[in-house]
Amino acid sequence: MRRILLWTVAVLAAMALWALLVLVATLEGWGRQASAPSGDARAFFETSVAAIDAAEQGAVAFVLIEKGEVFGEHYVSAGAPVTRDTLFQLASLSKWVTALGVLKLAADGKLDLDAPVSRYLTRWQFPESEFDTDGVTARRLLSHMGGLTDGLGYLGFAPGIPVQTLEASLTQAADPMPGADGRTRIGQAPGSSWSYSGGGYALLQLLIEEISGEPFAAYMKRAVFAPLGMSQATFDLAAAETAGLAPCFDADGAPCAYSRFAAPAAAALHASAADLARFLHAQMEGARDPALPPALAAAMSAPHATQYGLPIWGLGVILYAEAPGGGYIIGHEGMNFPAIETTARLDPATGDGIIVLATGNPGLPAQLGGEWVYWHAGEVDVREIDGRIPAMLRALLAGWAVILFLAAFGLIRARRARRRH
Questions:
Q1: 320 Cβ partners below 8 Å, 6+ apart?
Q2: pLDDT, position 224
Q3: What does the H/E/C string look like for the chain?
Q4: pTM of the predicted protein model
Q5: C-alpha angle with apex 344: 341 to 348, nearest 5 degrees?
Q6: Residue 5: pLDDT over 90
Q7: CA angle in degrees (0–180, nearest 5) for 334-44-386
Q8: Band of pLDDT at residue 390, cut at 50, 70 and 90
Q9: Range 286-304 average pLDDT
Q10: Among 229, 248, 309, 390, which residue's CB has the most CB atoms within a 10 Å radius?
Q11: Is the pLDDT assigned to residue 409 strictly greater than 90?
C-alpha cells in the first residue's frame, strides 16, 4: 500500500511539474525567435516592412516610434494611395481614445470615476437585474469590470441601412457580432470578473453626452482632438470620406464598403497615422503637453482587471506586457467587419511604440504588434497568450497522457517482477 501511495505521489508531482513547464513555456515564449536583434530598430522596421509588402493586398499604414520620435513609416495600398494623413477606421482601438475623453471629464471634476453611472443618466437606464446597479461605475466600465454581459462586438450598419439610436442600441443592439448577447445589462456582479463589453463603451458615450451637454463627436473634437493636434480625427464617416479615407478591402483583398455605427465611441473613430502618433506622444512620460494629469495617467496604465492571474486591462487600455523599465506596455487593437484591423502600442516610460492600421490584411496588425512587444520587451503579449491557450492545453493533456502511460507501464512491470520473485 505504501508503495502505491508513493507511486501516486510521484505521478502527481510529475504531472504538476509538466503543467508548470507548459505554463512557463507559454508565458515566456520558449522557442520563439524575435523578428530582429534586440535594440536594432532598423532591422525590426525592415523586417516589418517586408512582412507588409509580402501580403500584396489591402491598405496598410505602419509607423515605428523610438524614444518619442517617428523612426520609420511605411504605407501601401492596392487601391487609392495612402499616406501618413490618410484616415483609417480604427475599430475597437477607438475605445482607447474614448477612454481619454472620459478621463478628461474626471480631470475637470465633472465625473467621479467611482460613482454609479446611473446618477448621471437621464436618457437611458439599466434594465432590472438581480445585481446592484450602483456597482457600475465609469472606472469599471473603462476596464470591462462593470458586470455587463452584452459581449459586443458590433458589425455596424451597411450603407443605406438606418442606424439605430444610441439608446435603442443599448437596449438591444441590432448589429451584434455572432455570439454576442447584444443587450447592455448587468449579468454578473460588478467588479467580480473581467468581461469584454462594447455596450459598456456605448454607455460611456452616452455618459459623455449627458455630462458635457454636447454631442459625443463635438465633445471629443473639443476636449481631445484639438488639444492633442489630432486635426483630422473624426467619428463621422461622411467627414472621413471627404477628408480622405483609406480604401476598404475584405479579407480576400476585394473592395468593400465601410459600415456606420450606433456607438462610434466603441468602434468607429477615423484617424490617420499622424493623428495616432500625436495621440501616443501625449501619453509618454515627460511629454511637453501631456494628455492627462500625472495621477490619472498613472491610473490609466495601472492594472484594473486580471485574467488567468495576469494583469490585462487598465482604464481603457490593454496591458500587453511588463515594460523593460517598469510599468506596462499599453495600447489597444480593433477588428471591424469585413477585414479592418488596427493596433497601437506604447511603452510610456521609453517613448517607444508601434502603429499598424490596415484593411484587407486580417491578422497582420496583431502579428506585427505582438512581434514588436516581444522584440522591445522580451515578453509574449497577453493577447498572444490568449491565442496560445488551446495549444497549451493540448500540450498539457498530451504530456499528462504520456506520464500516466509510463506510470501504468512501470507499475505493471513492477508487479510482474514481484510475482517472479
A1: 328, 329, 330, 331, 345, 369, 373, 381, 382, 383
A2: 98
A3: CHHHHHHHHHHHHHHHHHHHHHHHHHHHCCCCCCCCCCCCHHHHHHHHHHHHHHHCCCEEEEEEEECCEEEEEEEEECCCCCCCCCEEECHHHHHHHHHHHHHHHHHCCCCCCCCEHHHHCCCCCCCCCCCCHHHCEHHHHHCCCCCECCCCCECCECCCCCCCCHHHHHHCCCCECCCCCCCCCECCCCCCCCCCCHHHHHHHHHHHHHHHCCCHHHHHHHHHHHHHCCCCCECCHHHHHHHCECCCECCCCCECCCCECCCHHHHCCEEEHHHHHHHHHCCCCCCCCCCCCHHHHHHHCCCCEEECCEEEECCCCEEEEECCCCCEEEEEEEEECCCEEEEEEEECCCCEEEEEEEECCCCHHHHHHHHHHHHHHCCCCHHHHHHHHHHHHHHHHHHHHHHHHHHHHHHHHHHHHHHHC
A4: 0.91
A5: 170
A6: no
A7: 40
A8: confident
A9: 96
A10: 248
A11: no
C-alpha cell at 12: 502527481
